[in-house]
Amino acid sequence: MKARRNGRGSNDAPHGCENDSLSGRVLAKLVPLNLRASGTEDGMTVVSARSSEWVKPVTQQDPASAIIEIDRVSQVFQTSARKDHVALSDISLTIEEGAFVSILGPSGCGKSTLLYIVGGFVSPTSGAAKMKGQAITGPGPDRGPVFQEFALFPWKTVLGNVMYGPRQQGVRVTEAEAQSRALIEMVGLKGYENFYPKELSGGMKQRVALARTLAYHPEVLLMDEPFGALDAHTRTRLQNDLLDIWERDRKTVLFVTHSVDEAVFLSDKVVMMSKSPGRIRQVIDIDLPRPRRRNELLLDPRYQKYVVDIERMFDESDEAGAPA
Amino acid sequence: MMSPAAMTRRAAPVLACIGLLVVWQVASLALKNDSFPTAIEAIKAIPSILGDKESLVNILASLRRMAMGFGAAVLVSIPLGLLMGRSTAVAAFFNPLLMVIYPVPKAALMPIIMLWLGVGDITKTLVIFLGVSLPVIYHSFEGAKAVEEKMLWSGAAMGLSPPQRLVRIVLPAALPEILTGCRTGLVLALITMITSEMIARQSGAGNILFNALDMGQYDTVFAMIIIVGAMGICLDAIFERVRARLVRWSEPQFDMPLSFS
Ligand SMILES: Nc1ncnc2c1ncn2[C@@H]1O[C@H](COP(=O)(O)OP(=O)(O)O)[C@@H](O)[C@H]1O
Ligand SMILES: [Mg+2]
Fold first, then answer.
1. ipTM of the complex
2. In total, how many domains does chain A have?
3. Which single residue of A52, A286, B45, B234 could bond B219 by disulfide (Cβ 3.0 to 4.6 Å)?
4. What is the rounded end-to-end Cα distance, in angstroms, of chain B?
5. From the CA of B45, how far away is ligand 1's center (Å)?
């Protein structure tokens, strides 16, 4: 804990109080087991500063198993002018278990639609998405969404929101409450348990939404521009905290964003999409060490190169795509 | 200690009532019309009505019918409105029916209903039921339609089935809007209660009022108007208290400035 905090240097200061709550003990209760068998013991030595046995070192990826397979998915919407609008065209993508994958692209390229298809909220016009080999036919607690709009239950307090999922899954009240309180602490909202969503800021609401989704232990997190509605400062803090949480837990994350920095900072893999029709342009592996620290990474030439390269690729596609 | 602003706010409704009575008193004295008693005469007639056992029985009978009509309407209309709001098929079926019923004054249906069901409680309760239903259906419908899709998706991801989502997400999410409809419904219940007793003269608060009118007891007529008005204010104030408690959590846009509480 101490070593880690030192390692983070000055960047700790603005949200130090929140990170205090991210203690290993709290997490041990929350994230009791890593479902994957790959959390090897030598992983501990790589990141010994963080006393968490479930950390899987990125550097020694095992033969990764696919958790989500998207197979030639297309989505056509009927527009009001009765014309067909191809939102997604022939998308194929495999997401490996435990990976942090970002979908990056301009507004309207179908990022949300793709995420909704994986979530089972929308069924594709053609093609299929699979979760662990099973065709996705609807939403399920194995895939937990976090939306840009938070979508909290406004009639429930923070605690009520976070407890909702576990209670629905049949967890006993006392147990659900204990777990939820620990999660609320983990996302830095200790003391706000009895607040209603209307009494919280945007950043706090998104923290509650994240805790609410983590509470029912989905295997995959589906995050649709979760920080898009937040101011830059809050956004940075939430990115850091998300990484903190993820680096312990290593859930599979499918993260939609239109921010190049955000995608590179967070991800193992960036899926670049282009617009009209929505297609995958390129998939880029982000080979940066973890745990990632923002202040170190911003100075890292490799990080800078990823950002610049990806931005350049988007610029080129804009020029190519401009009407003649 | 109350702040001056809070005190003004508390005192305002009382002042408004006193002002109204003063205007009434002055107007009545100025007009010197037999059928327009002064406010003081009307108020003096109130104790004799409330002290009379038969009148009280009548008024309580009215309130009972009103409660039953209102309760039944709410129990039927909220589920119907919510279903309409979440299912285009249900909405497509019921919308035309409601459009036909909506502009018809419910009291105008009374003669027909009386023909079928007699002049008793059932007819009057049914008319109240009809009067209350429409605003409650309408507001439940609007409330259910406005429920954020992502909220339902979040529930679906947690494993809630469609009926569970209707009861455990759509209903609470639409509650502020539903209660707005219920409040309108409550006032309409009072109105249709009196109207129904005017048409089917047999018992009730409306019956006292119109009997007194027939007999030229104008102070009793106006006393009954005051009593009915006071009942309306009290019911509304109680309802508003309950509503405010139930939707403490909601955004302030649902706060209704028009309130007697
Ligand atoms: N329900 C819908 N009906 C019609 N068109 C839609 C619908 N949802 C999305 N679209 C269209 O599909 C395209 C992709 O949308 P979306 O997935 O939201 O993009 P992104 O999330 O990348 O901004 C957009 O052009 C949008 O207008
Ligand atoms: Mg989107």
1. 0.85
2. 1
3. B45
4. 19
5. 69
